[in-house]
Write a sequence for this structure.
């Protein structure tokens, strides 16, 4: 069975049906999981399963030629997940993890079980650990984005989906999910564009057709409301500035969020919002705000530097270096970005072909 076709059916489920969806997802992947293979791109090839022999070979390479006793607990956990016995499945995955604590595939399975138990924050923490080990696997970013949605951390969900889209830009489901999150953020113009991207890939994709129509309608309603009550936007802006001056940053952020919902193209408010989120150590959300600024003002070298600093804080040094490099291209004598870039390169234990090495030579 083709994986994308399965996902197509899976997304027809509501969030209340997600436990059943996760169970179904596991059932379709079970034959692969029993071999102990990795996930995401490790068992997908052009959205077809790899052969069992190839998977077994991958498993031997991953575990030094030995299947390991942890596979028994892993298989038992998969069987329990099918019956929606997520608590018992989690116990099995924990035993598997105890036997093989560095296996990020098991962390991924633990996270899925935690999602079934609606322990979303714990699931997010495990998905984050997996992305640190295999940042190139789009499926982990997809699942992390879903978990963020469950706890209404929409900015973080958007950032996760964007990472997945960067790895697999032809995945129309990811574009649809991006559109849905943007709707939750009341950023309807961007949501409309995301749904359109999904439809360019699959023109008869029903959810994207419906989502685009909904986003168009909500955008019109939003614009009409702003035109009818412009004083409300000014009120939120002034209130945010007052709260910022009083160092009531959480309140100020909420006020600025109201402004960008009504005026999503206002880069100055996105910038203020990002700086306050960074002060509160909400780095993923700050990054999402800065990304709005560089989208609207791609020639702003100072914001590219801020963007790089947040990426560096999030332990994403290669992306940070690219942002610093972008800043220095816009302003070659921008000393802060120059110093940051040199510091990153000097601190990196990197092979000759790594992105940081290439950036160093380009500088």
């Amino acid at each position: 069975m083709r994986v994308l076709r399965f996902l197509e059916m899976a997304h027809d489920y509501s969030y209340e049906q997600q436990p059943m969806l996760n169970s179904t997802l596991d059932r379709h992947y079970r034959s692969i999981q029993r071999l102990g293979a990795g996930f995401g791109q490790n068992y997908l090839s052009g959205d077809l399963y790899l052969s069992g022999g190839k998977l077994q070979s991958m498993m031997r390479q991953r575990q030094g030629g030995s299947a390991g006793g942890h596979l028994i607990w892993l298989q038992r956990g998969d069987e329990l997940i099918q019956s929606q016995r997520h608590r018992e499945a989690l116990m099995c995955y924990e035993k598997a993890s105890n036997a093989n604590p560095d296996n990020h595939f098991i962390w991924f399975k633990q996270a899925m079980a935690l999602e079934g138990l609606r322990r979303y924050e714990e699931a997010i923490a495990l998905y984050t650990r997996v992305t640190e080990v295999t940042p190139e696997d789009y499926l982990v970013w997809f699942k992390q984005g879903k978990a963020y949605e469950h706890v209404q951390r929409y900015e973080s969900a958007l950032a996760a989906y964007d990472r997945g889209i960067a790895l697999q830009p032809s995945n129309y489901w990811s574009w649809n999910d991006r559109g849905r999150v943007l709707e939750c953020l009341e950023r309807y113009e961007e949501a409309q564009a995301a749904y359109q991207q999904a439809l360019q890939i699959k023109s008869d994709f029903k959810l994207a057709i419906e989502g685009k129509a909904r986003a168009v309608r909500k955008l019109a309603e939003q614009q009409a409301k702003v035109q009818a009550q412009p004083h409300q936007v000014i009120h939120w802006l002034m209130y945010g500035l007052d709260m910022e001056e009083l160092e009531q940053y959480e309140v100020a952020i909420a006020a600025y969020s109201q402004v960008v919902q009504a005026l999503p193209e206002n880069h100055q408010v996105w910038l203020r919002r990002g700086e306050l989120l960074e002060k509160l150590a909400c780095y993923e959300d700050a990054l999402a705000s800065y990304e709005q600024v560089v989208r609207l003002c791609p020639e702003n070298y100072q914001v590219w530097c801020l963007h790089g600093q947040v990426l560096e804080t999030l332990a994403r040094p290669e992306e940070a270096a690219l942002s610093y490099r972008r800043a220095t291209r816009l302003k070659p004598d921008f000393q802060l970005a120059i110093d940051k870039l040199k510091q990153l390169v000097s601190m990196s234990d990197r092979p000759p072909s790594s992105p940081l090495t290439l950036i160093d030579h380009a500088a």
Summary: The longest helix spans residues 206-228. The chain has three domains: 3-168, 229-290, 298-363. The radius of gyration is 22 Å. DSSP finds 20 helices and two strands in the chain.
